[in-house]
Amino acid sequence: MDASILTNLFHIGPDAQTTVSLLEKIVRPVLVYLFLVIGLRLAGKRELAQLNAFDLVVLLTISNTVQNAIIGSDNSVLGGVVGATTLLVFNYLVVRFVFAHPWAERYLEGDADMLIRHGRLLDDRLRAEGVTIGELEGAARKQGVASLEEVETAILEANGTVTFVPKRPRPNEARHQDLMTRLDEIQQEVKAIAAKLEARPS
């Protein structure tokens, strides 16, 4: 690899060369991609979940911070297209690799983590993931669950989303089920009456 590329990639300061070669435009996005994948993996799933404003600030700041690392001093349209294309192609290759090798998904994305089991909060798992009860309650309300007391199971998925399984049907769902059951009964009664009418001698 050309020495000027190494200088631009790793040297911080005014001595870094301003000319960004095509090879460097390809190498930069790949390195930043790998750094972000590893960094977010080590930071934990809550960063992806964006459970509070601080998580969102971190992600927005990271995106702004690595922008120049990807494109360097080249602000041309062609430079941006090359960088974006590199990211898309490299991500496609990573996704295909993970699809073909399921073991890699566990190392790259991690495993889902249960936060509530059988209606009981798992404090050790909450601490391990850095999730507060207030944040968990907020995530539950976003999914229409009024209280954690209604939750049978809560799982922090590998992609950062939180899945809630209620203990019992919610009031609206219960009323809907009762209504559907009643409609089925009425339909059966109507069929029975129609059958009796048809069976009457004319």
Provide a descriptive summary of the structure in words.
The chain has helices at residues 3-10, 22-43, 45-49, 53-71, 77-100, 102-109, 123-129, 133-142, 171-199, and strands at 113-117, 120-121, 151-156, 162-166. With 202 residues, the protein is an alpha+beta fold. α2 (22-43) packs antiparallel against α4 (53-71), α2 crosses α5 and α5 (77-100) crosses α6.
The helicity comes to: 55-70%
What is the radius of gyration computed over CA atoms, rounded to a whole number of angstroms? 28 Å
The tally of domains stands at 2
Q: Whole-number average pLDDT? A: 79
Largest sheet: 4 strands, antiparallel
* Distance between the first and last residues' Cα: 98 Å
Shape: elongated
Task: Give the low-confidence spans.
Answer: 12-17
Strand order of the largest sheet: 2-1-3-4
Q: What is the chain-wise order of helices and strands?
A: HHHHHHEEHHEEH
Q: How many strands in all? A: 4
Strand residue content: 5-15%
Helix and strand composition category: alpha+beta
Number of helices: 9
Which labels suit this protein?
202 residues, alpha+beta, CRO Repressor, 2 domains, 4-stranded antiparallel β-sheet, 4 strands, elongated
Write the layout of secondary structure elements.
Blueprint: H1 3-10, H2 22-43, H3 45-49, H4 53-71, H5 77-100, H6 102-109, E1 113-117, E2 120-121, H7 123-129, H8 133-142, E3 151-156, E4 162-166, H9 171-199
Helix pairs in contact: 2-4, 2-5, 5-6
Nutshell version of this structure?
Helix content is 65%, strand content 9%. It has 202 residues and is α+β, with helices and mostly antiparallel strands. A hairpin with a 2-residue loop joins strand 1 (113-117) and strand 2 (120-121).
